[in-house]
């Protein structure tokens, strides 16, 4: 058969699924499912799976960092709704090649992040998984119902913000794949891939502030993730190419290795930064709020009437929606 | 390194994990985690992963039945605490070999069981998983806090009950592996492996009845699962070999294929029946309660002071605790 894509699979499953339950506020189609827990309080649910050779490579991914990443990519989804992670489940598929020391280090990393966030491992499953290690994590978060930030709340004239430089993780992955790790010069890029640190607490503060409209985390690249916001909010987006934040390291690596850093920033994926939209009159307050958390946010575009994501660069306009990373089968 | 077992991995992880949170009633160590949702009401969480070539074989497992099984093995854990499943998350690892028709049939089976139990798919993840299909399911259930049945509540002199014949699924798997499927004569055995139907509603009724002490589901074989109850309850168990319920089909297959049906019944795993303990004076009421649900329960032993699981057979006593199926790595 022809290949079919992750997005089509999910859309089809969502379409065949009934959605009615009094306490289900949001099912498939956002960073997390949102379920009413008690009056005024909701639970957030998310799950993410990492597969050896697809999402990580043991030849450069230290087990402790992999354990940290397996947690952080899920916490990123909780933070992107504005919530706080509370409980976690771990399904671990191990291979015959796994050594006790590897597993200890993996769990050390995993549990360190739980401690940092005061989150409890409540259960899981351990199985043999054949040739590839498989890590499937489910997280339950919690928050005030009034503050939940959905993808669907972007409005025309909103400014589009991100919480850090983009493309670093994709650049780091490229360096690892080229055998250039460890590379002191490009350490920031490799670390962005190996040990992402999503701004979970900031997500919660932004949601509570009432200053923003839509929010989500950047996991598949800005081009794709912003397209999700646009589709869910029935709006379009314009990105100013020169405003996309690129780190010095990414630009330096791009010059040495002859790649386009902007392409990586837009399509690379795994940034685990937040992208959010907010009315222009809130810009100054947002910059100040984030600055108090030592995070510099960057405005790189605006929401418009219409649909799709347009990149404006050197006087040209190009549709880039859904150009990011996607699994195909 | 030497092999290390699933049980050791879980015990070690549980030991390194802090457990304190006001609303966490039970973490690692039962069929489900139990978290207080609102006054008097708890949530139950469980997760189970199936890996191609480890837990299922596509050459005899039809996709629709596999989809059903991926749900049912998780619902079994919810029922074993006495709860009702409410929400489900699906992480699906697909290979290049997966056809659209296969995926459609798998999802058809998956969603059919959700409909039967009025459960909603709230999210998930779809990834490439290399050589093997990987299905990781997380379920959230709900119930009255007063009625939760833990493994740790067995008491000396309790009778030990199961909700159906044992070893059928293990027998069915053996037949499939020997290329004897489809085998009309042994259809019951193959179906027990391919399409288990755990008594989830009965679990809930038993819990509400107040007639029972400990309960869990039989997934790793009676010898292992009962040993979990004994360890958690700090008691021992005696099983009467002649009272272990064996189906006519299993006994017939055992005669033809020269295996010991009792061994399969004790160690085979994947029965997805319930095992529970109850004071002897409740026996008649329990038989009647289950009979009203058209389920014949069988008493096959009793809880004693001490520890371990002893099989009494032909005048001999043999320790069989933790002899069931276990993943090793």
Tell me about this structure.
2 copies of one chain form a homodimer. Chain A is of the alpha+beta class and 329 residues long. Chain A folds into 2 domains: 6-147, PurM-like, N-terminal domain (60s Ribosomal Protein L30, Chain: A); 151-319, Alpha-Beta Complex (Phosphoribosyl-aminoimidazole Synthetase, Chain A, domain 2), CATH 3.90.650. Helix content of chain A is 35%, strand content 26%. The radius of gyration of chain A is 19 Å and the shape is globular. The model of chain A has no long low-confidence stretch (mean pLDDT 92). Chains A and B meet through helix 1, strand 2, strand 3, strand 4 and helix 3 of A and helix 1, strand 2, strand 3, strand 4 and helix 3 of B.
Outline the secondary-structure elements:
Two copies of one chain form a homodimer.
Chain A: H1 6-15, E1 24-26, E2 33-38, E3 41-51, H2 63-81, E4 84-94, H3 100-117, E5 120-128, E6 134-144, E7 159-162, H4 168-177, H5 187-194, H6 200-209, E8 215-217, H7 222-233, E9 236-240, H8 248-257, H9 261-267, E10 274-278, H10 283-292, E11 298-304, E12 309-313, E13 316-319
Parallel strand pairs in A: 4-5, 9-12
Antiparallel strand pairs in A: 1-2, 2-3, 3-6, 4-6, 7-10, 7-11, 8-10, 9-11, 12-13
Helix pairs in contact in A: 2-3, 2-6, 4-5
Q: Report the CATH C-level class of the largest domain in chain A.
A: Alpha Beta
Main sheet properties of chain A: 7 strands, mixed
Count interface residues per chain for the largest interface.
Answer: A-B, 69 and 69 residues
Low-confidence stretches of chain A: none
Strand-residue fraction of chain A?
25-35%
């Amino acid at each position: 058969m022809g290949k079919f894509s992750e997005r089509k699979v999910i859309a089809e499953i969502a379409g065949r699924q009934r959605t009615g339950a009094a306490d289900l506020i949001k099912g498939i189609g956002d960073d997390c499912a949102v379920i009413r827990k008690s009056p005024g309080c909701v639970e957030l649910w998310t799950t993410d799976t990492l597969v050896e050779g697809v999402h990580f490579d043991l030849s450069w991914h230290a087990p402790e960092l992999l354990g940290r990443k397996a947690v952080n990519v899920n916490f990123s989804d909780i933070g992107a709704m504005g919530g706080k992670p509370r409980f976690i489940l771990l399904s671990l598929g191990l291979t015959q090649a796994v050594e006790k020391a590897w597993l200890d280090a993996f769990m050390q990393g995993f549990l360190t992040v739980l401690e940092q966030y005061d989150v409890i491992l409540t259960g899981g499953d351990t199985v043999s998984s054949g040739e590839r290690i498989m890590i499937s994590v489910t997280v339950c978060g919690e928050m005030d119902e009034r503050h939940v930030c959905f993808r669907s709340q972007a409005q025309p004239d909103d400014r589009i913000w991100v919480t850090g430089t983009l493309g670093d993780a994709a650049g780091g992955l490229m360096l690892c794949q080229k055998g250039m790790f460890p590379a002191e010069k490009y350490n920031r890029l490799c670390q962005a891939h190996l040990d992402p640190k999503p701004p979970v607490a900031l997500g919660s503060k932004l949601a509570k502030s009432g200053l923003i409209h839509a929010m989500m985390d950047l996991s598949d690249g800005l081009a794709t993730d912003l397209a999700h916001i646009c589709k869910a909010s029935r709006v379009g987006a314009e990105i100013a190419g020169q405003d996309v934040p690129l780190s010095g390291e990414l630009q330096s690596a791009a010059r040495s290795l002859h790649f386009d850093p902007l392409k990586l920033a837009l399509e690379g994926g795994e940034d685990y930064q937040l992208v959010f939209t907010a009315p222009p009159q809130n810009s100054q307050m947002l910059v100040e709020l984030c600055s108090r958390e030592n995070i510099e946010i960057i405005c790189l575009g605006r929401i418009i009437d219409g649909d799709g994501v347009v990149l404006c660069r050197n006087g040209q306009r190009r549709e880039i929606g859904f150009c990011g990373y996607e699994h195909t089968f």
